[in-house]
Write a structure and sequence with these properties.
single chain, alpha/beta, UDP N-Acetylglucosamine Acyltransferase, domain 1, 2 domains, 17-stranded mixed beta sheet, eleven-stranded mixed beta sheet, globular
Amino acid sequence: MDKQSGTQRLRRWSAAEFVGVEMAADAVIEAEEAIIGAGTRIGPGVRIVARNAQIGSGSQIEQGTSVRGLGAPMDRFVVGDQALIGFETQILSPDFVMGDYSQLHNSGLHSGYRPLSIGHNCWVGQNSILNCTERLSIGNNVRIGTQSQLWTHVASGELLEGCTLFGESPLTLEDNVWVVGGAVISPGLMVARNSIIMTGSVLTKSTEPFHTYAGVPARDVTDKLSFWKPQTLEDKVERMRGYIIEFSAEFPQYDDRVRLGDSPEALHGASEGDVVIVPEVRDWAEAAERRVSMFDLTSKTYLKQRSVVEVDWIRWTVGFRARFLPRTAEEAAAASARS
């Protein structure tokens, strides 16, 4: 093997090289560079072989998971904060990126020769297949139900005998797509934002935003099954007000540390690590200076501070109540400078 490109350049990393990381004794990380955030747990029998491995804070990779390329080390393995990769999952790709609060549940096979990217706040059920023979791009807030299959190639029969079932084509799922479960998504499609693909469907054509598809092959059934209704900013404010009441009841230790208001007045009295939700942020700079997690209902983004309150709030909301995308302090400063 070429020593410049093979596993000889990788080295094995020990738990002692990371701060605040729990790593099982038989877990293996082989990489040229490895960065793992505090609070992350690496389970028994996990094996990660990647030239560059980055795992955020508070994430979990469960027992028996295998991460590598096909026939070679993975070039890049990046997992965000508070993410989950379930037990006995196989990720076999040259490049894998998954965002904050996303979850790949157990026993999935996610493999191919091209990059596989998954955005923030995604959920993929157990025993699913994410194929990346060609590039597979999954946006933010995407939900993929148990035993679903996403394909970027088809190959069957025998070309010599005239079989035409052969092809490779990238597949893209835009933000907020929901593949309900047991569905099959064909190669080469653009699954538009907020599309819903019903249980057991076989999708063979690209979709339209906010439309519903069902059947084999899947057809547009939005006239019979429409699951979206318009929401004004005022509607969102009122719903968020109710969420805060529910959250405070379940987490009394955070009483008055998650609040709803209007910017900039909402920041008055907020302490470091608090969560403040506003209809629209006019200036991110003060929130960044105070180290407050500011959530913007208009852009559906938040200033990421990694406080305990922020993490518990997002964990509580991200399942089905509300999903926001992170901004770093640097991104917030740039946004303030443009406004």
